[in-house]
Every structure is written in C-alpha cells, then in structure tokens.
Records
---
Amino acid sequence: MHTVELKHAYRLLNHGPTVLVGSQHAGQSNVMAAAWAMPLDFDTPKIAVVIDKATLTRELIDASGVLSINVPCVAMKDQVMAAGGLSGKTVPDKLARCQISTQPAPHTGVPLVDGCTAQLECRVLPATAHVAGPHDLILAEVIGAWADERVFSQGRWHFENAPPELRSLHHVAGGHFYAIGEAVQALPVTHA
Amino acid sequence: MHTVELKHAYRLLNHGPTVLVGSQHAGQSNVMAAAWAMPLDFDTPKIAVVIDKATLTRELIDASGVLSINVPCVAMKDQVMAAGGLSGKTVPDKLARCQISTQPAPHTGVPLVDGCTAQLECRVLPATAHVAGPHDLILAEVIGAWADERVFSQGRWHFENAPPELRSLHHVAGGHFYAIGEAVQALPVTHA
C-alpha cells in the first residue's frame, strides 16, 4: 500500500465500489459491508456513508467518532458477503469467521482491512447528528488514504493492466456483484 | 422502459454508477453529470446526491424541489462527458450541444433523459437545507422509477446477456470511465 495524496482521496470511491467499513471503540472492533458510500468533497476530502443504527458498527462509530472505508476486490468476495451477512452483535468472533484481518490506522487506531485495494481513515464531522439520526447518514473527513499501487497510481485507478482479482466489487442484490469492467474513454468536451 | 417497483428503486444505484441529473424550473431545464450519488433508504426509497451550489442544476433544484437521477450507458459516454463539462449557465443551448433529449416525468414534469437505462423521479426531502447548505448534499425521495428491461428485470440488473453498450459508466477521472464488468457470485453466508 502506498500513501494517496488527500486531494486524490475522493477518487478511491468515485467509481462507486461496495466498501467495507471498519470501526473500533474501547477494545471492540468490527468490519461490515456497505454499498451506500460516496465522496462528499474534494479538499478537504470528505465522504458520506449510510450505516443503519441497528448495527454494532454504528454503535462503535457513534461512540468513537472514527471509521475506516476500505475498497475490497474480487478476491475478497466471500469475505465481503460474510461481513454483510453476519452481525458483530450476535457473532462475537465475526472477524475470524469472515477471515478478515486488520491493521490499526496511524492517526486513530481504527481498523484498516487487509487485502483491500484502498483504505481511507476517517473522522466523523462534528455537528452532523441531524443526518445521522433520521437518515443513518454518516458524514466524515478523510484524514489518511492508502492504495495498492498495482491498481491505483498517479492519482487514479488503472485496473486494465492488473490481475482481475484486484478489481473492485459493485453489489447488485443478494450476493450478486459485478466487478468493475473495461476502460471507456470519452471524447474531450468542445467549448468552442 | 418499464416501471420499477419503488421498493426496488435503490437497486438502480446500488452498484455505484455515474448519473445524469435532470432539473427544471419556470421553463428552464438542464442535465448535468454527477458521480457522487447513492441510495439513502429502501422503502420509502430515498437518494443522496452531491450538487455544487455554483451550478445551474442546483439553482433549478433549489427553486423547484424536484430532480431526476438517470443512469447513462456506455453508448452515451460522450454525452455524459459533455454534460459534465459544459455549464447551462454559460451555454444556453447546452442540451442540444450535448445531443441530450428528455421527456417530462409523469408526476412533476422534471426531465428524464432519453437513452438512459434507468430513470428516477425525485422530490427533495423537506427540511434538509442543513446539509444542502454546507455540504451541497441533496436528499430526495424517489416517487417514480423506470428501467430498460434489456438490462434490468425481476428487480435487478442483468448486464451479462445484454449488448455491452448498455453497461453503466463509472467515472474515474478526466473523461476516463470504466464500464461495469463481469458478474461475480459470492458464497452464501453460513450462520451455523
């Protein structure tokens, strides 16, 4: 993993991948899957993610004010599915059961998920309870970002020359995903 | 286009496509590209989309309280690029220049974009100015949804048996997109 400039952090989520959300508070950690995540701002970089208030992840984030957003790849499809299907509330050894391992993020200690092609360390924005309450919408600032240089370099994704198992996952329904696919180049815009 | 049950509307955006946002007020319409859009709730269905306050689209949405979210396909890559690069403020004939045509949505008249594989008619949620102001984040309820049955049927996307030019676009940076790719099936979760 190499460090991504914070001004490019939004690009890690710009193409709409399904993510894994890492959380930790008072010695308890969790990782869950989430399809509803997106960039919210460029610089300073911010993200938005929907996390149901019934989840352990939400309890940990609300208590600690920190979270990580991780971009898993095709090789991790079964781990992503398990992280979305098992609850940390009822399965105390969830991470082991999901075969998910993590490393503490440098600024906050929040877990970053091993094997992911991108990792964002985030701090919940102050005074955003007005959306977290009614809409389960967490708004957070990105304070650290890392990516796998086999697929993300010079500030953008380059999937086409990397092993296919490193492609991002995009959840459709019930364990059906699509991997990100072929490169498509649009014509430049003519302003004349 | 066929009608999508509102309880399935979130699935039109669940895989993270780049979208076209339609808007209209007092006889003026616009369509712009946006990569930062996602579902916000299942039922009633809601969406979240980031729209810069400097845009004509934002002015029209703020004035009318309605918008459309449309999922363009590979065949529309140059239209999406043009819709993202030209401003309706400075290019009065923007839609013609972008070769974009629209049809009025049944409930609100907001423009739905022709050629897109999914269309969502949306009404801005009341009392969400607290996120629209500081974060340019528009929260809206989905009041109508339609999809192209060649790629969306039985409540989910099925890209694998359709022409490749119908695949969704996922913007990376500067006119570089990836099309959605190969189907990936995860193992069912074992709760035992």
Note: DSSP finds four helices and 14 strands in chain A.
---
Amino acid sequence: MPSVNNTHRIPTTDLDTPPRLLLGPGPSNAHPRVLRALSNRQVGHLDPAFLAIMGEVQELLRYAWQTDNPVTVPVSGTGSAAMEAAVANTVERGDSVVIGVNGYFGERLVDMATRYGAEVHRLDRAWGEAFSFDEISEAVERHKPRVLLLVHAETSTGARQPLEGVSELCREHDCLLLIDTVTSLGGVPLFLDEWGVDVAYSGTQKCLSCPPGLGPLTLGPRAVERLAARKTKVPNWYLDMSLVGQYWGKERTYHHTAPINMNYGLREALRLVAEEGLEARWERHARNARLLWDGLGEMGLACHVDEAIRLPSLTTIRVPDGVDAAAVSRELMARYNIEMAGGLGELKGKVWRVGLMGFNSREENVRLLLSALAEVL
Amino acid sequence: MPSVNNTHRIPTTDLDTPPRLLLGPGPSNAHPRVLRALSNRQVGHLDPAFLAIMGEVQELLRYAWQTDNPVTVPVSGTGSAAMEAAVANTVERGDSVVIGVNGYFGERLVDMATRYGAEVHRLDRAWGEAFSFDEISEAVERHKPRVLLLVHAETSTGARQPLEGVSELCREHDCLLLIDTVTSLGGVPLFLDEWGVDVAYSGTQKCLSCPPGLGPLTLGPRAVERLAARKTKVPNWYLDMSLVGQYWGKERTYHHTAPINMNYGLREALRLVAEEGLEARWERHARNARLLWDGLGEMGLACHVDEAIRLPSLTTIRVPDGVDAAAVSRELMARYNIEMAGGLGELKGKVWRVGLMGFNSREENVRLLLSALAEVL
C-alpha cells in the first residue's frame, strides 16, 4: 500500500459563520425551528417512519401550492434541479416549446430546453416586464408548442407573470403550461389547480424558509399522461419522474437515497406554512413589502418593476445615478451583516435585489434595512 | 382571488423519529458533530464565509480520496447525482464504453450511459465477484472504449474491485478510468492519484457519516481535457461540470444555489476524517469488520463475498436455508431498532447486507448486532 499523502489534510477550526441577515434573492434565513429539525437523528430512506414523513411533506406541499396533484415531490437537489426535472420530463427531442424570457431564469429555461433537444421559440421582453395575454396567445397560435414555459416569479427581476386565461389557451392547443414558482411558493398567492397549471417547480430557500437543497416539483394529470406517452426514456436518470415517482408513490421502489435530514427541514418549514395559513402568510408578505416600498419612496429610491406586477417577496431597487451598487452592498454587509444582492445580466449594476421572504418577511427587518441603507447612501 | 382549499392542510406533530441504529448499506448514522453542524446559521452561497467553507470541503475531499485534482467538488444532489455527473460529463453520444456489471450499481451505470447515448459493452460477472485484470484487458482491447466504468465498492454485494494495472491499460488506449467509490470513500483504502483514476464519485451517507444529500465528485486532468474537448454541450444543465466547476473554481460564477447547510455537515464529516487520519480510519474499519466476520462464522453464518475482495464497510451474509430474510430484518428493527437490509436484484432474499461505516464502525455495534441476530435466529 502506498503511504498516505497529508498535503490536503489542512487544519480547520470549529464552524463559525457571521450572523447574516439574508435579504437578497435567496437563500433567506431559515426559520430556527427548521434549523433544529435538520439535526434530528436519522432513520433509513425506506424506514416506515420516513415514509410517513414523505407523505406529510407531499400533503403540505399540495396545500402550499393549492393542488391535488398526486405527483408532488421534493426533488433531491436544489430548485435548479427541480427546474431541470420539469423540463426533462415534459420535453422530448424535436418538440416545439415557447419560453417567456424576461429575466435570467427564462434564459436558463432556454438553455435547458435546448439541451433536451427542443425547438425553442423565445418570447422576449425587457427584464422587469411581464407578457400580455395577447403576446402569449399569438406565440402559442404561431408555434403550436407542446409546452409553454413561463416564469411566474422572476427571481432576477421581481416581476410576477399574470396567468389569466393562459391555461385555457394551452388546453385548446394540447400544450402543457409549466411555471417557475421559485420565488412565489409560500409567499405569493398561487392556485395551481384553479389556474390550470400542469407543471410547477420551486426551491426551499426562498419563501419556505428552509435551507437550499430540495426542489419541490409537481406534475398535474396532463403532464403525467405526457410522461407516460413518451416515445423515448427521459434522458436524465436522476430526475426521471417515472422512476422517482415510484419511490414517492405507492410502490416505494428504491431509486436513490433521499436526503433524509433536508426532508426533516422541509417538513418543518411546511408545518410553519400550515400553522400560519396561506391567507395570513400572503397578507404578511404583502404588508411588509408595502412598508419597504413606501420607505424606499420616502428616501427617493425607485422600484424597477411596475407595482401592478411587483412581487412582494422580491423587490428590485433602481441604483441612483453615480452610485456604485456593489460598494453599497459590500458596506451593508461589512457594517450591518445584511446581505442585499445586485442585479444579474441586463440589470447588473442597475438594481439591487431585496428579498423579504418567509421568516424574513418581518417589520423589524424592513426598518433595519431602510435605516442601514439610509446610513450607507 | 379564489378561496384557499384546506384539504391538504393536514395536522402534524413535532418531529420525532425512532432511535435507529443504521447498520444497512447506508445511510449510516451521521456523527453527532455532523448533525449539530447542519443546524448552524446560514450565510449566502456567495458570502466570503461560505467560499472559505467550500475551499475547505474541497481540500479535505482531496485528502480523503488521496488526489490533487483541482476539480473535486460535492455535487448538489445525492451520490446518484454524482454518479450521473460522472457519466454525463465524460460520455458523448456514440462513444464506446465498457462497464463492469457485477451488481446493482453496475446495472445502473449501464442505464445511465445508455441514456447519454453511449455504445455500451457490458462485462458481466455474478453478483459478489470481481473482474480479473485479464478480463478487463480483453474487453478494453476488443471494444476500444473511451471510458471504462468499474465499481470499486459494490454497495449491493460488498465486493471490492481490484484495480492493479487497470490505469496503465486505460492510458495505453486513451480511455478514461471511472470508478464508483460510494461505499469505500472514508472507510477503505483509496489512492486515486497513485492508481491513475480519472473520475470518481461517492456519497456522503456511507463511510463519511454525513446525512445523504451531497455527492462528492472528482475529475482528473485527463477527464477535464476530455470535457473541454467535447463536440457537444453536456446534455444535463444541473450537472454540467463546465458550469458547476466555475462556481467551485476561481471564477465563483453563480450556477445554482449550493445546499449551504449540507455543506456545513460535509465539512464537519471531513474534519472528523482528517482528525482521525486515513490510516487509523481504514484500520478501524478493517478491525471491526474482522470482528463481525469472526462472530458470524461462530454462529455458522457464511459471508457471500470471498475474503480477498470483501469490503470492510459492507458485508453480505448468506441467508441460511429455510430462513425468511425479510422477517429477520423486520424483527431486528421491531425489537432492537437495528436496520439491516436485504439483498437487491440477483441477491434478493439470499443475503442480508450489514454496513459498518464511519461513525457506526464501532465494536459495540458489532457486539450488539451479533447478539441481536443470535436472539432473532
């Protein structure tokens, strides 16, 4: 046997991280009860005790999303994995798809759908705007897509995409409606079944106040049919819902080892949603966002997104002329331990992104941020 | 706005799970220090404090694997995601590959490689055996593979695949050597660089004693070259190491939000490996396995795998004639809270699988298991 090389056996200290207030686009701070749940002792991934937990997580996800979809599961990866699962399971090589691109995550959907061989038709809009029904309708009429992909809550811009009438349009054209709810689930009204959404995905680290590491995904009956009728296997083993669904469904067939402790955390996060109730939770997010927007207005700062489609969970603030956006963020972190993010892509250097999500959507955080921002500016 | 449907707002109780001793093939019990680290307060995924943690995780993974590979990262999914990342990044449509199939995870590699369009050549052996150098050499000569995929530690059988001479063979044929180290990393001698391994992956929930949820992956220089020279994009966005590698590399470009708290846990698990030292850790695994094997022998129970290639981390025990394997496992759990798994595939009903991994590889666990098994049988 060779001798062991100790080059990479570096000295380390006990874990100690600064007490950040995470007011960027996510991760937001997990609820303390969620953090405690994470360290609960483990059981196996096929233990009856864990199967019961899985069932509870699924039920509470259905509540949070307002759906009866049997196939509602936390994908064993982050929100981006759930996004890819949504695409991989519904798109087949050569399929026409229409993707609304009005921010970073629309762009990412284009990248993913392209990798899965889709014939991608982009519907473009400036970052921070939303698509009108007529624009969507015209694109669907023209391109006859198999899937229409829209970002309900654009994490890069803070814009909400209205969905009135879209589901009827999709049904007329035998097209699935797939939406990104990463920054809306648990903070912004969502009625998947009422709205006729066929596929949705999310992350745990936004309005659910759980650390990142799981990606909720739900497939409605039309999406499940589409999956069953595929001509080819899903070209992604880990995210193949025809396999994953058997572990989370009645069969309980082993596919991969679920992230046990992360599921403990998500269960606790969803219990908090159920305890508070969706109506109260949405109202709290709206109220604290209003407080932030009013405070920003008083400071002479403008929001980038029109109020009619502005997400209460994520606000983009226009950086005033002559101000160094990155320097302000650095200062907020250095002096106040507050994380406030900058813009991505088209909005880089032009906006700051402030998240008031889940546990972090509290009046004291708004007051602190406004006061700290006034000091730094 | 529609009214909220409370059908799925089910009542739940505080999380409470039975005190299982996880002596199956994984997950094994996490070390208590790891469980505590999970619930540490969060920082953002681009926070300088987190970037420092990422660097430490990478260094300590290099130590555990005995490699200098710069591209050594925990994939943001379970070990199965790391397995798929290994395949997706090295295999291109039409590539000839040779896969050693002597257990469940070899079969899974075949499924994955097929989905990525490889021309798969199987090398088959009964479950529980290993391949001889001559068999491997003959297959490589005949099929001229671009990648040779072998399972170093077969979690379904407990067999270890010797690798002497294999790397030289691969280099002669411009073929990458990719190995599964899910059940060996942190418990069984591994010298990736000495052995000339180009790609390896693992899980966190076996000999590293961290909960499932991350999948360590390492790419050597020849694999990185292969990735850079691809004719097509990796057909998997989430696991594309040319993107993920930029977040974990010098660029720190955002790709997806890393599972912050799971990385806290993995860091602590790897610190425990570094504190104990690989030599002592491997010796401890060997010593406790020997104790188990001797005890089983005294009870008249036979191990399924030949001792020369038997993994100290995972033992398959032959189920005696006339004994109901599943009933024994159920009884061990009901009476003693001990999880001991059954066989998969070819070995279903024929063996039990006992893991003595990481924190769980302790003499008291061996004594308890032997005593409980004697009672139940």
Note: Residues 45 and 72 of chain A are 18 Å apart (CA to CA).
